[in-house]
Structures are given as structure tokens and as C-alpha cells.
Amino acid sequence: MAIIAPSVLSADFANIQRDVEMVNNSNADWFHVDIMDGVFVPNISFGFPVMKAIKKHAKKPLDVHLMIVDPDRYVSTFKEAGADILTVHLEACTHLHRSIQNIKANGMKAGVAINPHTSVSLLENIITDVDLVCVMSVNPGFGGQKFIRQTYEKIKVLKEMIAKTDSSALIEIDGGVDLNNASLLIQSGADVLVAGNTVFASTDPVQTISDLKSR
Ligand code: DX5
Ligand code: ZN
After folding, report:
1. Which atom, in ligand 1's list, is nearest to the CA of 10?
2. Hey, whose CA ends up nearest to atom 10 of ligand 1?
3. Active site residue 178
4. What is the pLDDT of residue 192?
5. Which listed CATH number (3.40.190.10, 2.30.29.30, 3.20.20.70, 3.40.640.10) goes with 3-213?
6. How does residue 164 score in pLDDT terms, banded at 50, 70 and 90?
7. How crowded is residue 37: how many other Cβ atoms within 10 Å of its Cβ?
8. What is the pTM of this model?
């Protein structure tokens, strides 16, 4: 069964406690927390005060997706703010291996995210060091975008690389995940599904989370 990580980017920030408790009381596994700096991506989401407010009520791990330049500067601060898994973008890290070691040294699981245009082959020399690969299935920056279909092929290639190298990395898919594409994503090799709009725009988010989970 897939790990389901609702993306709080699509939550109602005026009712953040209510929405966090909805996720607590659902079959979801993690909270997906999107941090955007307006430089790496053309949007700004939220920072530490909001993240701490989420952490205060969350009873499940925080899976924090950094869409920021120079993430090394903030690794220990994200740990303090409650991150359990910290994911940096390959495109934002000149010394990715160092960034991954830094995240682990701060007591978190380490992930690497790749943009839609980035080849999975660039992960060959880091795959045994990471706990998670986040394959972006939209261009990062906004919720509610259309799923990019080339993602399926990337998952298959990545799954083979993970098997061949004996890596324990989980494959996470982020962007445009819905009840129609979830099963094919899982069949292709996805371990974690992030869902923002599909969960929070649903009339019955708890049921939608269960439906994603049983795909
Ligand atoms: C996009 C973010 C995603 C986003 C997903 O830049 O990384 O996590 O919240 O939202 P949906 O599921 O609506 O595409
Ligand atoms: Zn994300």
C-alpha cells in the first residue's frame, strides 16, 4: 500500500489546526510541507512560524519539500521546526552529496527532488545515500497543476536503478496526483503519493485519502 502525504499547501491556513487534525484522523501517513522561496520557484509559500504551527498539532511525520536555493543554510532550523524528512532539489545543490550528509547529521531522513526536465540518470551517484527521491510530476511552485505523463517512464527507470544498487530509497510522486492516475503510479513503482488539491478540494477529504490509499 502506498504512503499518502497530503500537501498542506492546499489546506485552509485560517483553519490550519482543523485541517491538520483531519489528516491526523485519516489514513494518511505523512504531512507534505512545501517551502518556496520565490527564487528557486516563482512563488512564495510559508516559513518557520507556519511550519511550527503545523508541527504543534501534527501526529504524523512532516515530509518537508524545500524549493529554495542554498538549502544548507537552513537545515538545522528545519530540524528545530519539526521536519522528519527533509528533501532538497538536485537543481538547487552544487554539492548535493554534502547537503544529503548534512541533513542526516541533523537527525533527519534525507530526500532529493528532481524537476520534470531532470533525467533520473543524474541520481546514479547519490541513490544509495538518499532515503527518498521526489519525482516532480509538475513544474514546482503551485498546487493544482496538470500531471506530466512522462513521469511514469521516469519511475520505471528509477525503480530499476534502486533495485540494481540495493538502495532503500522510496519513490515519491509530487504534483497532479489524483484518483485516476494513482493506481498506474503505484504499478509503475511509486511508494509515496503527494496530493494537495485532490485531498483538500474534495468534499470528503478523509474518504479521498482512503481512496488514494487503496488504489
Ligand atoms: C508543487 C508542490 C506540491 C503541490 C502539489 O510545487 O511541490 O507538493 O502542493 O499539489 P497538487 O497535488 O495540487 O498538484
Ligand atoms: Zn511538494
Report:
1. 9
2. 143
3. no
4. 99
5. 3.20.20.70
6. very high
7. 18
8. 0.98
Residues of the chain with pLDDT > 90: what percent?
Answer: 100
Cα–Cα distance for residue pair 5/130, rounded to 1 Å: 18
Binding site membership of 145 for ligand 1 (Cβ less than 6 Å): yes
Question: What's the CA-to-centroid distance between 33 and ligand 2, angstroms?
Answer: 7
Closest to 104 measured CA to CA, from 120, 136, 126, 125: 126
Q: How far apart are CA 129 and CA 125, in angstroms?
A: 9
**177 ligand 1 Cβ < 6 A:** yes
Query: Is 34 tagged catalytic?
Result: yes
Can you give the residue ranges of every domain in the chain? Answer: 3-213
Nearest residue to 191 (alpha-carbon basis) of 95, 41, 85, 75: 85
pLDDT digits (tens, 9 = 90+) for 91-129: 999 999 999 999 999 999 999 999 999 999 999 999 999
